[in-house]
Amino acid sequence: MKRHSFEPARLIAGLTALTIGTGYGLDAVGLWQAPGLWLFLALPVGLILSGITAAVRATTRRNTPHPDPPPLPHT
């Protein structure tokens, strides 16, 4: 399996979507009375936090070149 670099902005966006989906799901089942305004405002707040995180990571990431892949064997 190919390894991917850690991207905290995607983590924040995914956790935001998961939280909103869980909140609306629990409200639909009747286990929790979701405050509509709070869940509605959670999406832009999560996306703004994700964008800020992506911008900070882009400015602080080192500009190291990726190593060349190993040569393919000749058949």
Given the C-alpha coordinates, what overall shape results? elongated
CA radius of gyration is 20 Å
Quick one: biggest sheet?
Answer: none
Averaged pLDDT: 86
Q: What is the chain-wise order of helices and strands?
A: HH
Strand-residue proportion: under 5%
Task: State the share of residues found in helices, binned by percent.
Answer: 55-70%
Overall structural class, as computed from helix and strand content, comes to mainly alpha
* Number of separate helices: 2
Point out poorly predicted stretches.
none
* Count of individual beta strands: 0
Would you give an account of this structure?
This protein is mainly α and 75 residues long. The protein has 2 helices and no strands. It has helices at 8-29, 36-60. Helix 1 packs antiparallel against helix 2 (36-60). The longest helix has 25 residues, at 36-60. It is elongated and about 65 Å long. The two termini are 24 Å apart. The mean pLDDT is 86.
